[in-house]
Write a structure and sequence with these properties.
538 residues, mainly alpha, 76% helix, 0% strand, globular
């Protein structure tokens, strides 16, 4: 009797028989898009977030990394819950929790509570993303459909920042910042409701008992990631090793890292099998993934330049990013064609990083105090195309470099590398911005005197213009000095953008040379059958 019941259960389809395939895929992708939007929500408009909560810019970045750390650390444990709970019920639990946490975010202004809630959002979001990816990749059965699935997913990841900014800009323009969390609730509700209605009550993954969860590895990993985020975000602000908290955190990171390695080596069934590093192609892929995330992280300066130097509002600055999204789509289409043919993959990588090199070189020449918005359309498109051409191929190269049995371990290592490199990219930008701006400002002030550049006349001109608008003379003098200081700071930021993009251009050039010296890239067979992206892929 039990055997017969088991057979009948296996025959129950995952989705209702009346649901067409297009509706199923639409529902999955819509819910996946909502979960990806939630990731970058805290930094969609950093200034608005900082102003609403009374945060420092570093606090806004830290809230994003708390979300990321939660997703990355919980990914290994989450799969066990997914295997134990019926998928339809698991979806309902995750959605109810996600909406409840988003509603709490809408009502709070306490910084410490925002941090806690963003961390909890990350844990729950890991479950939602895992459900979507398992449902989506479970339906990709035809030849090359997995390559297309990977490309679509990682194309969405590349689009997450500009899409979230476009989603947030008109809302922040007319309402308080916290209304974004109410908006994200209304994004989740229709997509989750659609998916819940068309799902049958089945286990997508083979049911396993919920015992022997490796909570110790989870806690070691999550604490280490949070400390890495803390050091890289607040280190510059606290003068690095001059602050005891930073020193203790670095010591703790080293200790937790060693403990994690020793624990995985001692376990009979480790969460992360370190034998993945025995595969040369895996290590090569990880190196290029680190480079890609450092290069991609520098792109955020373009939006900052539009707003800080050109004086665009966030809505118009983000509308320009539509050209970047179109470039990502074009690059992803090119990438999937190369991947399906399994030919000239090295040429694909060189082409992608070549376009990124062109973007950074062109932008370093286009950066100026005045510019026409139309000038940046083509460079933004080329940046998106270059990123789209290399993102999914690099990930699939890493996935294909290890056996299927080590796929989960490879994904866990990739998650740690992406998180660390993403955090490092933010730290580099913070450090070089402060260093280059400080050096340039000091240089200007050192050479600026009452005999330079007609300074008295310029200050008098500012003062006369302000006084002509009805401002008292003494106040106009102070405001004129403030305007001059603002002009100096704008020039200093401009110099930082140019210098940083020149450094990233050199990194792209070095990467192209490195790819040219690695013929193994073209010899590797891309095989992602039976594999799917990790829930923490973004």
């Amino acid at each position: 009797m039990c055997k017969r019941t088991s057979t009948m259960t296996k025959e129950v389809p995952i989705f209702k028989t009346w649901a067409p395939e297009w509706l199923i895929r639409f529902g999955i992708l819509l819910l996946l898009l909502s979960s990806v939007l939630l990731f970058a929500l805290s930094t969609a408009d950093g200034n608005a977030a900082a102003g609403y909560y009374g945060m420092e810019p570093a606090d806004v970045q830290f809230s994003l990394l708390l979300f990321y750390a939660a997703v990355a650390s919980f990914a290994g444990v989450e799969r066990r819950f997914f295997e134990r709970i019926v998928t339809k019920e698991y979806l309902l639990i995750c959605i109810v929790l996600e909406i409840a946490i988003a509603y709490a975010c809408y009502h709070t202004r306490e910084i410490w509570l925002v941090f806690v809630l963003r961390f909890l959002q990350g844990i729950v979001n890991c479950g939602i993303t895992s459900i979507c990816l398992n449902l989506l990749f479970g339906r990709l059965k035809s030849e090359h459909s997995r390559e297309q699935g990977y490309t679509i997913f990682y194309g969405m990841i590349l689009c997450v920042s500009p899409v979230t900014a476009l989603f947030a800009a008109p809302l922040v323009e007319d309402f308080e910042y916290n209304v974004l969390y109410k908006a994200i609730i209304f994004c989740f509700l229709p997509s989750a409701a659609l998916l819940y209605v068309i799902l049958n009550r089945v286990h997508v993954l083979r049911k396993k008992p919920l015992y022997q969860l490796d909570w110790a590895s989870f806690f070691l990993f999550v604490v280490m990631l949070i400390l890495i985020a803390y050091v890289l975000i607040y280190g510059q602000q606290k003068d690095w090793l001059e602050d005891k908290g930073i020193v203790y955190s670095i010591i703790a990171i080293a200790g937790l890292f060693v403990l994690s390695i020793l624990r995985q080596l001692a376990l009979k069934r480790p969460t992360v099998d370190l034998s993945v590093f025995k595969y040369r192609n895996f290590s090569i892929g990880i190196v290029f993934l680190i480079i890609l995330y450092l290069v991609r992280g520098a792109f955020s300066l373009t939006s900052s330049y539009f707003i800080t130097v050109l004086g665009m509002d966030s809505l118009h600055a983000n509308e320009l990013m539509i050209y970047n999204i179109l470039g990502i789509i074009s690059g992803s289409v090119i990438a999937v064609r190369f991947l399906m043919q399994q030919k000239m993959l090295r040429l694909l990588w060189i082409g992608g990083f070549g376009l990124l090199l062109v973007f950074f070189l062109v932008m370093s020449f286009l950066f100026s105090t005045e510019a026409d918005a139309d000038t940046f359309m083509l460079p933004l498109f080329l940046q998106g195309m270059g990123a789209g051409m290399v993102m999914s191929p690099i990930v699939m190269f890493i996935v294909s470099s290890v056996p299927l049995a080590l796929g989960q371990s490879a994904a866990s290592v990739g998650i740690f590398v992406r998180f660390s490199t993403f955090s490092l990219s933010l730290a580099f930008i913070n450090y070089f911005q402060l260093y280059i701006k400080g050096m340039y400002s000091a240089n200007i002030e050192r050479h600026l005197s009452l005999l330079d550049l007609g300074l008295p006349q310029r200050l008098k001109l500012y003062q006369s213009a302000l006084a002509g608008r009805g401002m008292p003379t003494d106040v106009a003098g102070k405001v004129a000095s403030s305007l001059l200081n603002k002009a100096i700071q704008k020039q200093a930021f401009l110099r930082f953008c140019i210098n940083y993009y020149e450094m990233i251009a050199l990194l792209c050039l070095g990467t192209i040379v490195l790819i040219a010296l690695q013929p193994v890239i073209s010899r590797t067979i891309i095989d992602v059958k039976g594999k799917r992206p990790a829930a923490a892929g973004f």
